[in-house]
Structure formats: structure tokens, C-alpha cells
Design goal:
Chain lengths: ~300, ~300, ~350
């Protein structure tokens, strides 16, 4: 059969219009595109820095995040020893911000991770199996879709009581329906493509089809969507704490800090803006990173 | 078309029932007995028993649900536990206040969004487009409650331009009461503006890049028909998003209303949570969610009227 | 691997036994609608279709779009479950006790789809796609890939250049060659080509057709070739089957059908075929109007609503496939028409 290779005549059939593309795996291509994307690299570096500072909080600051001093209440930005000022009980703002990153990031990322797992499972089942099970899942999701996201989160949190766990549960419930919908749509679209039929014709089992043909085509879309949700999740989880429904005092969390510093806005206007600024920057970094990822993972885009 | 509307309505009914079940169920999943939340801890057992009967808590859960649903369907949500005024009356006033803000924010947000989206599509790749893209990317990531605080800081704390709290007294002249609305409206309109602007830009660019617009231009059509064609094709998704955004303005303004102390439905909900005022809480969530469902229904029907492809 | 001449060890009944026999295949799809989404009607996609495919031949299936050609293909592959009907693969009934299983049949029967892009997983390279099914069936990875590369060469693609490419980096013709290679990777005996060349440019189409002919000889294959293109079907087929609204209206050797069509529908179809030779352009009536809705097909002969020979008897019962009444042609020529004038194609004097 080796002699048959002589039959191959490269170029006789519609020669490829573009230059020969080096044989590279898909993920290699994605990585190469990402490495060329300066914005994405920059925001990723920012995020790494934010995560690092939060984790290393005890080493980047010498103050205790819970121990304040009555003498040092509401000092302005630039106070010697407290370069970002102090809060209403005299605790160092910089310290609180560093420690606050831990809870804020946790409360923002975990709900998305939970909804990613639960949502894509339900969505793939609904999209692949369809029928009554699919309808049941999708109708149930429609019910949760009927609530504006903040309203649902506030309602769940308000009734379950405040606290980090409840805030995570509330946001996961908010994010599962859109995740299911995306996963269901992409799965249903992929399922009806001929290559799935071809795989079935080749005797591939349902589980193998889901693993090898559906997941690889669906997961990318879901992952990109999930990263874009982190941004919203951080805003909403901080918002819940801001309302007093999330993380409880005296813990350090950006939304909670924003709320308590807001009360003192007439005394120290600028300090009040700081935690919110961090929420904003972090959420924007996640947003831009998600955009970059989406661009890099688009197969049809040959950049 | 009528068939489509009817079918869509039929789909909304189970959704609404599901919503009511969730709202009802949440209260019962919540830790603690609802009676304990209503009564002071030192209440006598007789008082508690009386209260149970008064609120129907002695009956089986499903009967409680149907009783509550039946009353809710005619707007009877009982009395507030906190101040014993009818829940419905409180809700109507609060909703009215929220709708005022939402309408204004929608008007300006959608308007500016469309204009900015069209402009950046027209100047695709040039500096106005880049500026707008930067603004909207920032806008989507903006915690709007923080934005509200910054606006308060700028306009009410550092300068004495605008009032920062409440909605003013009824006795004030109209233009002065209007001043109270400026900051909340500006804050609320930012997100719809960014979101709508982005979509308009994307849709217009998408339609322009498709061959048939080129074909239309090639046929010697002047610019206006081409524009009309673009609008007709871009409208359905933009409209759908507008419906959704208006729903968020109505149901999701709890954070902004809290910052500005605006006596709307979000504020009512927030107070109800802290006062453990279950009847008010349930009623507010149920009514807001119902609004949202009906709004989506209306958008679907309007969308189908514009674009026959959506009808099935 | 070349099998020319040698008897396929999987052959069970010898050359004379049909490779695939299809009996009374039927598939109706429910149509839902109305406010309550109830089943309102059924589409008679494939209705009581019987035929057989001989070893080594190419059976062409032609008909207008929507006549049930593709549904038939998917029913044969068991990609959708038939409502009724039996498949007998080389003497073994598929799915019956004592017969062969669906999985076993699929290994010997493969399909090439029309859309060359969507039938390849966009996240898999060409060799991945070709080697996938054999690997799933237990061929060691290394060997599966080696064989995939040699198959690429067999279908006229340079493995060094194309093996690691993704579908979007290939042209339509190249992708379709890969699809053919993938179908061959399981070493099937029967390949169903469902409009496999219809989406290609004419020049590429010809190259792929020639490739198919070569492969058929080299691997001793049997083809079911489904197409709406009469010229292509004439070029590749040994026998032809004409379908109309989910039923077979005529079948027989390609020369007989093309030279002496017996069913008025076949005649109309051939008359509408663009001929290369202006002298051969016929004046026979072309097909007018759209085919009737398959949701509610006419009683009796389904073509009668568009047939100028139609009479009362046509509405009474579905005409059976039978040898032409006025024929001296090959015995296997079958036609589903009960009107002698229609079979002869006599020009009607009245009207």
C-alpha cells in the first residue's frame, strides 16, 4: 500500500489559498494567539497581581485587618503610616483591601465554578437527550429566568440569611439557568451536525460521542461564557455584601467596605471610592480576559 | 400571528406558576419558622397559636400555597407585619416610584445607546469607535452602586449641585423634585446605554458585512433604503434586549434605590428583608417577577410581528 | 489490503445473493403544532419502500428534493429508527434473533454526507477524524493512525501535507475526500453516498467521482448513490431507482431507465434534465407545479395530481411495482403505473 502514496498529488486539487499552516494543535494555536494579544496579557497579569496580593496579604501589610484604633478613625488618603487612610473604626484601608480581595474573589469565582459544573451537565443532558427530560429541564430554567438576576439573588440571600455560603448559593442559582441555556443550545446545534451522525454510523456509543465530539465543541463556548460571568459575579457578590446580605462584619470584603465607608462619605469622600474602584478594576480585567479568550478560541478567525 | 401570541401566552402561564412556587417555596426553605420571624421571642404560646391561625400556617403547605396564590391573583397580599398597612397599597406606591426612574433611565439609556452604537459603526475602526468601545467595556464591568456613590461624592459632597437622598417633598415645585431624579437616572441609564450601544454596533456591522447590503447598494439604491434595511434587520434583537434591560431596570434597581434612598420597590424589598416582613417580601418579588415575565412576553410578540422568521 | 479478485472473507451468500435487501421500509414523522403542540399530521417521508442492492453494483437513487432519498439513507444506516420494515444484510436480518446486530451491520455499511464541512468535527485534524472510529473499535492507536495516513494517500491527499490540518483549512473537495477516507477506514462493504458530490464545483465533482470509481474497484465496494443530479447518476450507476414522495415509482438498469423510461414521472424528470446536445432536447411535457405536500399525499398513485394520463383507476389503489406491460426490455425493469398509454408515453390527442 506504500506505493499508493505516489498517487497523492499535492496541489492538483484546489490548492489552499493561504500559505501552508504549520501543523499545530488547536490549543497551541489558541495559546499563540493569546501570547500575541497585549491587552489580554496585561489584564491577566493584573489579575495575577490582585490574586497574589490578596493571598499574600499578611506579608504586604503589617497591620491587623480587624484591629482598629479609635484615635485613627477616618484618616484621609496619604496619612503617614496609613497611605490609603483608615475606616470608621480606625482600621488601615490598604490592609483591609488586601485581605478583602480573598473573600471578594472567592465569593465571585466560586458561584461561577459551581454553575459551570451543574449548568453544563444539565444543559448537555437537555441538549443531547432532548425529549421530555430536556423539556422539563428547560422549563424549570425558564422559571428562574423569569427573575431579574439581582432580584433573585437578593431574594434568596435575604431569605436564607446573610453569610458567604448563602451568597455563593444565591449567585450559583442565578447563574445556572443561563449556563444551562448556552450549553443546551450549543449541544443541540452540535448534535445535529453530520459529524455526530457520522460518528454514530461508525458505531460510536452515546457516551463516547458526548466525550469526544460534543464536549470538545461545547466546552470552549461554555468556558468563555463562564469567564465573562465572573465579572458579573464579582459585581453582584460585592453588591449583596453592600446590601448587608453577603459577607458579615467585621470581615473584610470590598462590597461590605464600600457600604460602611459610604456612611462616612461626608467626612472622607475619597476613601469611600476605593473599594468600589477595586471591584471595578477586577471585574473589568475578567471581562477583557474573557473577550481575549473568545477571540483566540474562534476557530474560523485566522489571524 | 395570533396563534403565535396565544402559544407564547400558554408558555408564560406555567412559567408564572413556577415563579409563584419559587417565591412561596423560598420562604419555607428559609431557616426558621415564619411565625418565629413574625413574633417577638417573648410572645406567649397562645399568641403564637392565634397568629398561626390568622396567617393560615396551621394548614398543610399545599393548601397554604393555593390560598396565598388565590389571594395574590386578585392583589390581596394581606397586611404588612411591620406596620399593619395593606401590602398592596405600599407596593403600588413603591412601584410607581420605581417606574418613574425606570422609564426615564430607559428613555435616555436606549436613546444614547442607539446613537452611540450607530456612530461607532459608522466610524468603525476610527477613534470614535475605539473611544466608545472602551467606554462600553468599562460600562459593562461597572459596579453601578459604586458609580452611584462616586456621583454622590462629586455632585452632593464635593459640590452642592444636586440632592443625594430621597425623592423630595410633594410640596416642592416640579423642577425641584426633578433634581432628585437626576443622579439615580444617570446611574441607572449607564448599563442599558452600554449594552444597547454594543449590540447596535455589532448588529449594524454584521448586516453591513453581509452580501445583500452590498447587493442593495449595487442595485443603485440610495442610502436611505439601505439604512431602512439595516434598521429592519437590526431591530428584533435590539428590541429584545431593550425589553430585558427595562425588566432589569424595574426589578434590579434595589442597589441604586438603596444608595439614593429612593422609596421604590427595591427599597421596599430591602426594608422587608431586614424587617423580616414576609408578606411584603413575597408580594414584591412576585409582582416584579410577573412584570418581567409579561415584559418578555410582549417583547416576543412584538419581535414576531416585525420578523416573521421568528414565528413558528 | 487490496482485495481485487479475492473473495471477501465476510462474504456469506456468494455473488448472486444481494448484499442488502430492503423490505417494506416505512417512516412517518409527526408534525406538531397549534396552541397545545399536539400532533397535527404526519409526514409520509418513506412509505413502503422495497429494493435490493447487489454485490459490487452501484445503485443510483434519484428524485426531487423532499422525496425521501435522504431519509431512506438514514433509515438504512439506522440513524433514525424505521416505523416498519426489514433490512437483510447479506442474508442476515438486521436486529433479528439469529441475524446480525445493528452495530455489526454498521461496520460493513458506511455513509458519506452532503455537507463536507459539518460532517467533520472542527476540533479534530484529518487523521484524528479518520482514525477515530477504528480506534474506538479497538485498533491500536498507532496502527489506526498509520492506516489513516495511508487512506489519505488513497483518496489523493498528501499525508505529510494534509494529515494534521483542521477542516477549515481545507477546500470542499479535499474535505469530501477525507470524508470518503473516514467511511473507508472501517473497511465497509457498502457505502451510501448521500448527495456526496452535490455541493462541489463541477470540476471537483468529476475528480471525486473518478476517485469513487477507482476506490470501488480497489476495495471491492458496493455503492448506493443518492443524488438529484440525473447526469451524475447516469454516469455512476449500474441500476437506478426513481423515488417520488416517499415511494419507488420505477427501477431498473440504467440504460433501460434512461433510454426507455416507463413511468410518466421518470419521463418528465429526464425531460427536464439539461442535455448537452441540443438535438436531443425533447418536447415532452416538463414537470409543472410543486410536488404535493408529503403531509397529506394523494390517494392511490401519488403522481396522479401532476400526471396528464391520470384517470379514475389511478386514485383507487397504489400501483404495484411490476414489469412494464408493453416491454421487451430487461426483466428487472419495474414500474409503478397501471396505465398502458402512460407507460408507452403516447402523446395524448385530446386536450
Amino acid at each position: 500500500m506504500a506505493s499508493d502514496t505516489t498517487m497523492a498529488q499535492p496541489g492538483t486539487l484546489a490548492a489552499p489559498a493561504a500559505a501552508f499552516i504549520a501543523p499545530a494543535g488547536y490549543w497551541k494555536l489558541v495559546r499563540r494567539r493569546l501570547l500575541r494579544d497585549k491587552t489580554t496579557l496585561f489584564v491577566t497579569a493584573m489579575l495575577v497581581a490582585i490574586v497574589f496580593i490578596s493571598l499574600a496579604a499578611p506579608w504586604v501589610t503589617s497591620y491587623d485587618p480587624y484591629q482598629g484604633s479609635i484615635m485613627l478613625r477616618l484618616k484621609p488618603i496619604g496619612t503617614p503610616g496609613h497611605w490609603l487612610g483608615t475606616d470608621e473604626t480606625g482600621r488601615d484601608i490598604w490592609t483591609r483591601l488586601c485581605y478583602g480581595g480573598r473573600l471578594s474573589l472567592l465569593a465571585g469565582v466560586v458561584p461561577v465554578a459551581v454553575s459551570l459544573v451543574v449548568g453544563s451537565f444539565l444543559g448537555i443532558v437537555a441538549g443531547f437527550v432532548g425529549g421530555r427530560i430536556g423539556t422539563l429541564i428547560m422549563r424549570t430554567m425558564d422559571v428562574f429566568y423569569a427573575f431579574p438576576s439581582i432580584l433573585l439573588a437578593v431574594a434568596i440571600c435575604g431569605l436564607l440569611g446573610n453569610g458567604l455560603t448563602n451568597s455563593i448559593i444565591a449567585l450559583a442559582v442565578v447563574f445556572i439557568p443561563p449556563m444551562v441555556r448556552i450549553a443546551e443550545t450549543v449541544t443541540a446545534q452540535t448534535r445535529q451536525l453530520d459529524f455526530v451522525e457520522a460518528a454514530r454510523a461508525g458505531g460510536t456509543s452515546t457516551m463516547q460521542i458526548i466525550r469526544h465530539h460534543i464536549l470538545s465543541n461545547v466546552l470552549g463556548t461554555i468556558l468563555v461564557y463562564a469567564t465573562s460571568l465572573i465579572s458579573l459575579s464579582i459585581i453582584l457578590s460585592a453588591g449583596l455584601s453592600f446590601l448587608g446580605l453577603g459577607v458579615t462584619p467585621p470581615q473584610a470584603e470590598w462590597g461590605l467596605m464600600l457600604n460602611s465607608l459610604r456612611q462616612a462619605i461626608y467626612v472622607q469622600p475619597y476613601v469611600a471610592a476605593l473599594p468600589g474602584l477595586l471591584i471595578f478594576v477586577t471585574s473589568m480585567c475578567f471581562n477583557l480576559m474573557s473577550d481575549g479568550l473568545r477571540g483566540a478560541m474562534d476557530v474560523r478567525l485566522n489571524r | 400571528m395570533l396563534l403565535f401570541s396565544l402559544r407564547r401566552l400558554m408558555l408564560a402561564i406555567p412559567t408564572l406558576l413556577g415563579v409563584s412556587l419559587v417565591v412561596f417555596g423560598l420562604v419555607h426553605i428559609a431557616p426558621g419558622n415564619p411565625i418565629d420571624m413574625l413574633m417577638p421571642p417573648e410572645a406567649s404560646p397562645e399568641a403564637i397559636a392565634q397568629m398561626k391561625i390568622a396567617y393560615g400556617f396551621d394548614k398543610p403547605l399545599y393548601i397554604q400555597y393555593f390560598l396565598w396564590l388565590g389571594h395574590a391573583a386578585v392583589g390581596q397580599f394581606g397586611l404588612s407585619v411591620f406596620n399593619a398597612t395593606p401590602v398592596w397599597d405600599q407596593l403600588v406606591v413603591a412601584l410607581g416610584n420605581t417606574v418613574q426612574l425606570a422609564l426615564l433611565a430607559a428613555f435616555f439609556g436606549f436613546g444614547f445607546g442607539i446613537v452611540l452604537g450607530l456612530l461607532s459603526a459608522a466610524y468603525y475602526g476610527k477613534w470614535p469607535d475605539k473611544l466608545f468601545s472602551a467606554i462600553t467595556t468599562a460600562g459593562v464591568s461597572l459596579p453601578h452602586y459604586w458609580c452611584a456613590i462616586v456621583l454622590v461624592m462629586l455632585c452632593a459632597v464635593l459640590h452642592d449641585w444636586l440632592p443625594a437622598q430621597g425623592m423630595g417633598d410633594d410640596s416642592l415645585p416640579f423642577y425641584e423634585r426633578l433634581q432628585y431624579m437626576i443622579l439615580p437616572v444617570v446611574t441607572l441609564m449607564l448599563i442599558p446605554m452600554g449594552v444597547i450601544g454594543r449590540l447596535v454596533r455589532a448588529r449594524v456591522l454584521d448586516i453591513i458585512s453581509q452580501d445583500f447590503v452590498g447587493a442593495l447598494s449595487a442595485k443603485g439604491l440610495t442610502r436611505w433604503p439601505v439604512l431602512r434595511h439595516i434598521i429592519k434587520n437590526a431591530a428584533p434583537p435590539v428590541l429584545a434586549l431593550m425589553g430585558l434591560q427595562f425588566g432589569y431596570l424595574l426589578g434590579g434597581s434595589i442597589l441604586i434605590e438603596t444608595v439614593f434612598n429612593w422609596p421604590g420597590s427595591g427599597n421596599l424589598l430591602n426594608l422587608a428583608i431586614f424587617r423580616r416582613d414576609i408578606p411584603v417580601l413575597q408580594a414584591t418579588i412576585l409582582v416584579l417577577a410577573t412584570f418581567f415575565v409579561l415584559l418578555n412576553l410582549a417583547v416576543d410578540v412584538i419581535q414576531a410581528a416585525i420578523d416573521p422568521r421568528i414565528r413558528r | 489490503m487490496a482485495k481485487t479478485g479475492a473473495l471477501d472473507p465476510r462474504d456469506r451468500g456468494g455473488k448472486a445473493q444481494p448484499l442488502l435487501t430492503v423490505q417494506n421500509l416505512r417512516k412517518h414523522f409527526p408534525v406538531r403544532g397549534g396552541v397545545l403542540n399536539r400532533v397535527k399530521a404526519t409526514v409520509h417521508a418513506v412509505d413502503d419502500v422495497s429494493f435490493s442492492v447487489r454485490k459490487g453494483e452501484t445503485l443510483g437513487i434519484v428524485g426531487e428534493s423532499g422525496c425521501g432519498k435522504s431519509t431512506t439513507a438514514r433509515l438504512l444506516m439506522q440513524l433514525i429508527a424505521p416505523d416498519e420494515g426489514t433490512l437483510i444484510f447479506d442474508g442476515d436480518e438486521v436486529g433479528a434473533t439469529g441475524g446480525i446486530s445493528v452495530a455489526a451491520m454498521r461496520r460493513q455499511m458506511q455513509m458519506v454526507f452532503q455537507d463536507s464541512y459539518s460532517s467533520l468535527n472542527p476540533r479534530m485534524t484529518m487523521v484524528d477524524s479518520i482514525a477515530y472510529a477504528p480506534h474506538m473499535h479497538g485498533v491500536p492507536k498507532r496502527r489506526a493512525y498509520e492506516e489513516a495516513e495511508s487512506l489519505l494517500a488513497q483518496v489523493g491527499l498528501n499525508p505529510q501535507q494534509h494529515a494534521r490540518r483542521y477542516p477549515h483549512e481545507m477546500s470542499g473537495g479535499q474535505r469530501q475526500r477525507v470524508n470518503i477516507a473516514r467511511a473507508l477506514a472501517l473497511e465497509p462493504r457498502l457505502v451510501i453516498l448521500d448527495e456526496a458530490v452535490s455541493a462541489l464545483d463541477k470540476s471537483v465533482e468529476a475528480q471525486v467521482l473518478n476517485l469513487l470509481r477507482e476506490l470501488k474497484a480497489r476495495f471491492d465496494l458496493t455503492y448506493i448513490f443518492i443524488s438529484h443530479d440525473l447526469n451524475v447518476v447516469e454516469y455512476v450507476s449500474d441500476r437506478v431507482m426513481v423515488m417520488y414522495l416517499g415511494q419507488v415509482v420505477e427501477s431498473g438498469p440504467v440504460e433501460a431507465i434512461y433510454r426507455q423510461p416507463r413511468h410518466p414521472y421518470t419521463r418528465a424528470l429526464l425531460a427536464s434534465k439539461p442535455s448537452m446536445d441540443p438535438d436531443k432536447r425533447t418536447t415532452a411535457m416538463p414537470l409543472t407545479g410543486d410536488p404535493p405536500n408529503p403531509i397529506d399525499p394523494p390517494s392511490g398513485c401519488r403522481f396522479r395530481t401532476r400526471c396528464s394520463y391520470a384517470r379514475d383507476i389511478c386514485a383507487a389503489a397504489i400501483p404495484p411495482l411490476a414489469p412494464p406491460m408493453v416491454d421487451d426490455g430487461p426483466a428487472e425493469h419495474l414500474v409503478a403505473c397501471v396505465v398502458p398509454e402512460a407507460q408507452e408515453g403516447r402523446v395524448l390527442t385530446h386536450a
